Amino acid sequence: MKQAPAAQSPAPAPPASPPAQPPRGGGDPPALWIFGYGSLVWRPDFAYSDSRVGFVRGYSRRFWQGDTFHRGSDKMPGRVVTLLEDHEGCTWGVAYQVRDEQNPGYLGPAPEEAIATQILACHGFSGHNLEYLLRLADFMQLCGPQARDEHLAAIVDAVGAMLPCFCPTKQALALV
């Protein structure tokens, strides 16, 4: 399968009406679309034939999912994004992934400062949790600049405020 680049010209603002369904061929079954709203926006780890920058309404992106492999460890899970149902929300990404409420890795809400501390302290097999945050923020700035992701911006700001003096200790991390 051919892999097409995800980044194109700036994405349009969310339309007032729901987007149309992807076109279907004659008797072909409907196409399967996976919506990447986290690391899949910069590193899809599967073959694909087409990609589209877009959004999903009714969900907000949050750093509330624990990751003990790619961005953290069993002792110190990193934070990656998950989707939270939010009727006013609009999450941009690259062309559907539903969080399972029974997921044991789901960390849930936390103060931005606690999330930022955890992101700064964690790394896993795929790299540092900070890289995950910054790559996602870069994607949003490049591909969805008119979309406002307040949670993402708050986490970036909290990390930025901590970065100059961050030195993780067991005592500080116990607050997470």
TrEMBL record:
EC number: 4.3.2.7
GO MF annotation: an example: gamma-glutamylcyclotransferase activity
Low complexity: compositionally biased ranges: 1-10
Top EC group: lyase
Entries under SUPFAM superfamilies matching the protein: Gamma-glutamyl cyclotransferase-like
One biological process term in Gene Ontology: glutathione catabolic process
InterPro entries xref list: ChaC, GGCT-like, GGCT-like_sf
Region of interest called Disordered, as start-end residue ranges on this chain: 1-28
Keywords of the record: Lyase, Transferase
Comp. bias regions, Pro residues: 11-22
GO cellular component, one term: cytoplasm
Reported function: Catalyzes the cleavage of glutathione into 5-oxo-L-proline and a Cys-Gly dipeptide. Acts specifically on glutathione, but not on other gamma-glutamyl peptides.
Stated name of the protein: Gamma-glutamylcyclotransferase
